[in-house]
């Protein structure tokens, strides 16, 4: 029941992120794009992954190699940094089809990382959690780094984001700085918290090797 509620909440967040910006009064601009991006990968994706983990719909048991934590982390790094290259970002803003591809790829790699960390089909629990902790911490680091680069950049990189307006009337540079800060804080914090949750699980879980050693000593 709780798992279904968490997954449903993730679906609602995803629907709000993709369908709700205009209803919320979010104007076009880089910060508006970043709000949607973080809602997809840092809120909806972990909720959906946690809701699926361990259920009959958990895909990690079917393709354990695909859901290897470090591979998932590397794929998300490529997708996230790639779509924030000015040329690809402009292409997504200029074409609904490319925009849909961008958003679907964000969701796909977000789910890939979170399922790789929390899924139950990636090997023994302790080993899987260890890989998941590292993947989430590294993802937190590269999200924080990209956010900091955007927030501290001395010049605007996304003039095209203002073709149809700006977020809250900000200048292009201020809009970019706000978007970078959103990524740095929300993206970095979400993956860091996920890694800490897995670390707490790992510390609480008994080590089967120790149990075997105690059994033999008796």
Distance between the termini: 42 Å
Q: Give the count of helical stretches.
A: 8
Helicity range of the residues? Answer: over 70%
Low-confidence blocks of residues: 210-218
Shape designation: globular
Number of strands: 0
Strand content: under 5%
Overall number of domains: 1
Q: In this structure, how is the largest beta sheet organized?
A: none
Order of helices and strands: HHHHHHHH
Please, what is the average pLDDT? Answer: 84
Given helix and strand content, the structural type is mainly alpha
Tell me the radius of gyration.
19 Å
Task: Characterise this structure.
The protein has 218 residues and is mainly α. It has one domain (2-212). It has 8 helices and no strands. Helix 1 (2-19) packs antiparallel against helix 2 (30-52) and helix 3 packs antiparallel against helix 5 (96-118). It is globular and about 55 Å long. Mean pLDDT is 84; it is low at 210-218.
């Amino acid at each position: 029941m709780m798992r279904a509620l968490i997954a449903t909440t993730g679906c609602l967040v995803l629907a709000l992120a993709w369908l709700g910006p205009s209803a919320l009064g979010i104007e076009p601009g880089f910060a508006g794009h970043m709000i949607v991006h973080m809602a997809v990968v840092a809120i909806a994706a972990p909720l959906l992954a946690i809701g699926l983990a361990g259920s009959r719909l958990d895909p990690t048991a079917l393709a354990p190699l695909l859901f290897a934590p470090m591979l998932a982390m590397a794929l998300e790094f490529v997708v996230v940094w790639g779509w924030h290259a000015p040329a690809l970002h402009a292409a997504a803003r200029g074409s609904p089809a490319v925009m849909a591809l961008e958003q679907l790829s964000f969701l796909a790699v977000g789910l890939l990382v979170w399922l790789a960390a929390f899924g139950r089909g990636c090997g023994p629990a302790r080993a899987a959690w260890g890989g998941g902790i590292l993947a989430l911490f590294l993802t937190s680091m590269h999200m924080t780094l990209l956010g900091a680069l955007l927030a501290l950049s001395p010049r605007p990189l996304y003039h095209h984001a203002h073709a149809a307006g700006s977020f809250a009337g900000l200048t292009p540079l201020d809009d970019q700085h706000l978007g970078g800060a959103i990524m740095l804080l929300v993206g970095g914090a979400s993956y860091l918290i996920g890694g800490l949750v897995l670390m707490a699980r790992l510390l609480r879980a008994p080590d089967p090797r120790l149990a075997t050693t105690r059994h033999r000593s008796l």
